[in-house]
């Protein structure tokens, strides 16, 4: 199982690479890696397991964070109505997005960043994501709210982008034009 020692931290070059597309149909190795990403996210949200293995909680994880520079992400998060969005995807892609922006009022955090970086992270309010699931099927998901933000945070990892790259240096809590605050 993946634990915190397997997660690379800022300064590691892999976090700034463009991750490579996964060759489909996915190999057993790549399927196992993607399953492990999802297992970590779920474990990290389990009170007993996270305590036992000292896991920092996360709502998603991207393969580059375990030093695998391949386009795979896992997201396991509920929206404000309690609807669960649980997806483990190969080659996820934002195929369309709203003009409107959104951001988490509490800011964002990252398991690869061992420090608090305060500030609003402007994201697309709504995104449509396409990807390939573990059964090899193409999925098309329309997202808003926290799930939309989580997917964008993870897909950023595949493009070498950290959440704080989006924060306004001069005024981290600058009100964002045409944006809705979440949370
Ligand atoms: O890349 C994934 N992580 O670093 C896991 C830890 N971060 C979070 O769970 C997290 C926290 C706040 C906002 C967002 Cl969008 C996310 Cl994703
Ligand atoms: Ni992260």
Give your account of this protein's structure:
The chain is an alpha+beta fold and 183 residues long. It is 20% helix and 26% strand. The chain is built from 3 helices and 8 strands; from the N terminus they run ααβββββββαβ. Strands 1-2-3-6-7 form a 5-stranded antiparallel beta sheet. Strands 5-4-8 form a 3-stranded mixed beta sheet, covered by helices on one side. A hairpin with a 5-residue loop joins strand 2 and strand 3 (84-97). The two termini are 31 Å apart. The mean pLDDT is 98. Bound molecules: 2,3-dichloro-N-{2-[formyl(hydroxy)amino]ethyl}benzamide and nickel (II) ion (NI). Nickel (II) ion (NI) is lined by residues 110-112, 153, 157.
The separation of the N and C termini measures 31 Å
Strand content: 25-35%
What structural class do you assign from the helix and strand content? alpha+beta
- Spell out which ligands are present: 2,3-dichloro-N-{2-[formyl(hydroxy)amino]ethyl}benzamide, nickel (II) ion
Radius of gyration: 16 Å
Q: What is the average of the pLDDT values? A: 98
Global shape: globular
Order of helices and strands: HHEEEEEEEHE
Task: Please tally the helical runs, counting DSSP H or I stretches of 4 or more residues.
Answer: 3
Number of strands: 8
Helix coverage percent:
10-25%
Largest sheet: 5 strands, antiparallel
Low-confidence stretches: none
Spatial strand arrangement across the major sheet: 1-2-3-6-7
What distinguishing features does this structure have?
183 residues; alpha+beta; 5-stranded antiparallel β-sheet; 3-stranded mixed β-sheet; 20% helix; 26% strand; binds 2,3-dichloro-N-{2-[formyl(hydroxy)amino]ethyl}benzamide; binds nickel (II) ion
């Amino acid at each position: 199982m993946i634990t915190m020692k397997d997660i690379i931290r800022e300064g590691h070059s892999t976090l700034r690479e463009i991750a490579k597309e996964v060759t489909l149909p996915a190999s057993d190795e790549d399927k196992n890696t993607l399953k492990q990403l999802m297992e970590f996210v779920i474990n990290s949200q389990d009170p007993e397991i996270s305590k036992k293995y000292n896991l920092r909680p996360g709502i998603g994880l991207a393969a580059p964070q375990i030093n695998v520079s391949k386009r795979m992400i896992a997201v396991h998060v509920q929206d404000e109505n309690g609807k669960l969005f649980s997806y483990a995807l190969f080659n996820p892609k934002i195929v369309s997005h709203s003009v409107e922006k959104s951001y988490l009022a509490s800011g964002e955090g990252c398991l690869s960043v061992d420090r608090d970086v305060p500030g609003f992270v402007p994201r697309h309010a709504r995104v449509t994501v396409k990807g390939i699931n573990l059964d090899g099927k193409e999925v098309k998901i329309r997202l808003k709210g926290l799930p939309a933000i989580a997917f964008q945070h993870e897909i950023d990892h595949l493009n070498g982008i950290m959440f704080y790259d989006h924060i306004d240096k001069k005024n981290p809590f600058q009100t964002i034009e045409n944006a809705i605050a979440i949370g």
